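Lay summary

Proteins are chains of building blocks that fold into shapes. Our project writes down both the chain and a compact code for its shape. Here are two examples, one after the other.
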Amino acid sequence: MSRQHYLQKNFRMQDTIGYLLKHTFRAMSDCIHGKFASQGCSFQQWIVLMHLRDRTVRTVADLSRELLHDSGAMTRLIDQLEVRGWIERQRNREDRRVVELSLTSQGSAVAESLIPLAIGTLNSALEDFSREEVQQLQSMLRRLTARLQEMESEPAAAKQAP
């Protein structure tokens, strides 16, 4: 039997992991968006540049999935980055229907130049945590993500079981 961390008799939505993660994300996002506002690159643009720098995505569709953006909004963001000379689009050699994205040298420089701002914001947010606590939090979030992905891939019958 699985552990019962939540019970109906004392369930409060604001104590759920999802609620706490969403509010943590919103607070962090609000904090960092403000710091990026004066940098000539929005936080959202920088996130796209970083995904391309780290090669976690290749296409607009990949970015849309990763950032939970609709493809139209993501295409407009990519258009802005291309106009600024920060990214390039290239047709895939094996499948010409696929358009791959890559950083230009200027885009790479912008991404790298803003890393200290992101690091400073994260370090300030975590200043009351020990290194071990941060590593433990990272580990727990990775485990939670892996479990949720595992649950998502389970057959439908297993998902409906009480």
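And here is the second example, written the same way.
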Amino acid sequence: MAAAGQAGAAARGAAGRRGEKVRSDIWVEVEPRPSGPIEIELRSRVAIYYGEAIRAQVRDVLQALGVKHAGVKIEDSGALPFVIAARVEAALARSGTPLRGDARPRQVAATPPASPRERLRRSRLYVPGNEPKYFVNAGLYRPDAVILDLEDSVHHDEKDAARLLVRNALRTVDFRGAERMVRINQLPLGLKDIVAVAPERPDLILLPKVERVEQVHEVDAALTKLAKLAGNDRAQGPWLMPILESAAGIENALEIAGSSRRVVALTLGLEDYAADLGVRRSADGAESVWARRRLVNAARAAGVQPIDSVYGQVDDLEGLRRWAENSRRLGYQGMGCVHPRQIAVLHRAFAPDGEELERARLIVAAFEKAQSEGLGVVSLGSKMIDPPVVKQAQRLVELADVAREGDEP
């Protein structure tokens, strides 16, 4: 945070990371001054190639924020422009200097089309919000969604800097078709996250530790207010996925699922849930079976997607496969990922098998034939097919087609 100097001396602020093992980041220290030029001391392994570009960007960011006189120290570890801009802004804010103006980088990544409410969400890859080295390549692994995480993966003292980094990433990073999600912090701190990231149009915001509908209402109201201020009254804005992580959250699952038109899915935080019960999380998940079943039932009753928790044993892909296949049998439509190697396992586990998909295609074909002939009854052979079965078959075929297109290199 801002360092207090001697009376009359300018405060310094620093942000970012430095060291031999750091990559794709930058450490910046800013000392605003009452007069004089902007002086920049730069250390970088690529200074001979990009030194002048880094200096020019630092000057541009400072001037955009209303600072004309400052001393700046920089240790660069291969940071991209969106990272440099975020770190300079965070360092200046930590100096205690009022920020005047807008230093967000130019929007490079084309904003993707609005995310459909019922889109495929088999896998969502968590990316620590203060680790820019993971941002750029996250979409290369072909997850259905990328979660830029501002909560558990970010130290409390780095929340402010991570918020700016995630904001800038949403403007500039191409996530290659993955749904762009942000996990905000628990309220009330999460409201600051929303103010920063919502204008950059993330597809979905995850709400941690939800126990009451009022928490969802508070976020919904904040998003609606921001949309109106931006003159975008009719915008849907980001979807919401509440995370239920306690006994109280599970008990209120149905009310939470139906608390806002923005809610499209419910998910679990099983580590915190087990801790709230006072038990240890087990490999087979025996302690959470009831909660997982209850969440599926509540989500289905409210018309939203049930999404399972993460599987934390990164090296145990066979265990992940068993867990994911069981999740699908329970009614879940996807899970969280903590490592890219888990993505392909989840995509296979949540895909319909050949026999199931073939039957779904036969049902859809029978339905379309009945429609073309003006018949109100759908039959497959000698068996009548009820409307809910037809609807489920249509969804399986649709998702299988979307999955095939999305998984193609």
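What can we say about the second shape? Residues 387-407 form the longest helix (21 residues).
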